[in-house]
């Protein structure tokens, strides 16, 4: 299982590396287009900030399988902690869970799930991410939820994964405009970037329609990246867990073998003493 997880981890890392430039580019494009039409942005529903926080959608990204150490447990723990935090603010939490492990764990704890997405966590496709994101966008646009957060394991290395909570909606609090903007690197050609900022933008069709479609695409990519990060984290965590399990098993075998040899030696010594004592008694 360690070898299989290592092979899948490498493929997952390659998919993340291939996606990151596109995700970075669409984030920059989204921000540039929005900055070029500040008056048009106000009419986009995905940027609408609700004055009162009543309902929050929380998406927990776990795995379909276990044997991956604390990979699934730490997501469930963070989701429950987030619910306690939001309950204190007077908000209702609506859970959606990706992965069979997370779904079964949340149901076992008596939590009601809005949606459960299973069967693709080890190798997620963009269609899976779009299905999740469009459900969230629909719930937000229909006023069923006021915020949308996603909780997943961010991949750093096979030994290191950490839980990350990312705001998806509304977009003015997401990475495009709000938190995470500092992660956008400075452009190499500042004069060219400044010229682009002063350029006249012509929209065909209307800016509201283009911006809304572009923002939906950004949410799709954000969810897809979270799924890929989670998949790589799962393979890394499973590889590490299986390696630790093998090492612990070898240590246990060594200890049990030593203990067995000691018991056997003690029995042999006891039998020799009994034979010597019997010979002396007869002698």
Keywords:
283 residues, alpha/beta, Pyruvate Kinase, Chain: A, domain 1, five-stranded mixed beta sheet, 7 helices, 5 strands
CATH architecture: 3-Layer(aba) Sandwich
CATH class term: Alpha Beta
Helix-strand topology string? HHEHEHEHEEHH
Query: If helices are DSSP runs of H or I spanning 4 or more residues, what is the number of helices?
Result: 7
Distance between the termini: 63 Å
Shape, please? elongated
Written overview of the protein:
By secondary structure, the chain is an alpha/beta fold. It has a single domain (2-238), classed as Pyruvate Kinase, Chain: A, domain 1 (3-Layer(aba) Sandwich). 59% of the residues lie in helices and 14% in strands. The chain has seven helices and five strands; from the N terminus they run H-H-E-H-E-H-E-H-E-E-H-H. It has helices at residues 2-36, 38-41, 71-88, 100-108, 126-141, 190-198, 207-282, and strands spanning 55-61, 92-98, 113-117, 147-157, 160-169. A five-stranded mixed β-sheet has the order 3-2-1-4-5, with helices on both faces. Strand 2, helix 4 (100-108) and strand 3 (113-117) form a beta-alpha-beta unit. Helix 1 (2-36) runs antiparallel to helix 7 (207-282), helix 3 (71-88) packs across helix 4 and helix 5 (126-141) crosses helix 7 (207-282). The longest helix has 76 residues, at 207-282. It is elongated. The relative contact order is 0.18. The model is unreliable at 179-184 (pLDDT under 50).
């Amino acid at each position: 299982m360690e070898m299989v997880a290592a092979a899948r981890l490498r493929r997952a890392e390659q998919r993340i590396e291939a996606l990151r430039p596109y995700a970075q580019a669409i984030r920059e494009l989204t921000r540039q287009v929005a900055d070029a039409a500040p008056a048009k942005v106000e009419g986009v529903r995905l940027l609408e900030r609700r004055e009162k926080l009543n309902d929050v959608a929380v998406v927990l990204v776990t795995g379909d399988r276990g044997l991956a150490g604390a990979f699934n447990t730490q997501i469930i723990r963070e989701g429950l902690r987030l619910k306690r935090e939001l309950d204190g603010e007077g908000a209702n939490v609506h859970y959606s869970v990706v992965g069979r492990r997370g779904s079964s764990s949340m149901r076992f704890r008596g939590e009601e799930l809005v949606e459960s997405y299973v069967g693709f966590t080890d190798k997620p496709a963009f269609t899976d991410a779009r299905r999740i994101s469009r459900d969230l966008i629909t719930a937000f646009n229909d006023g069923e939820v006021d915020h949308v957060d996603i909780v997943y394991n961010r991949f750093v290395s096979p030994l290191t994964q950490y839980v990350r909570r990312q705001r998806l909606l509304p977009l003015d609090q997401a990475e495009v405009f709000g938190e995470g903007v500092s992660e956008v690197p400075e452009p190499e050609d500042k004069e060219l970037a400044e010229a682009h900022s002063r350029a006249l933008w012509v929209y065909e069709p209307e800016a509201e329609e283009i911006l809304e479609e572009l923002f939906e695409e950004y949410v799709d990519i954000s969810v897809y990246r979270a799924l890929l990060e989670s998949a790589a984290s799962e393979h890394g965590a499973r590889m590490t867990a299986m390696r630790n399990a093998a090492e612990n098993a070898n240590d246990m075998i060594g200890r049990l073998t030593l203990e067995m040899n000691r018991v056997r030696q003690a029995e042999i010594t006891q039998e020799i003493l009994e034979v010597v004592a019997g010979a002396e008694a007869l002698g």
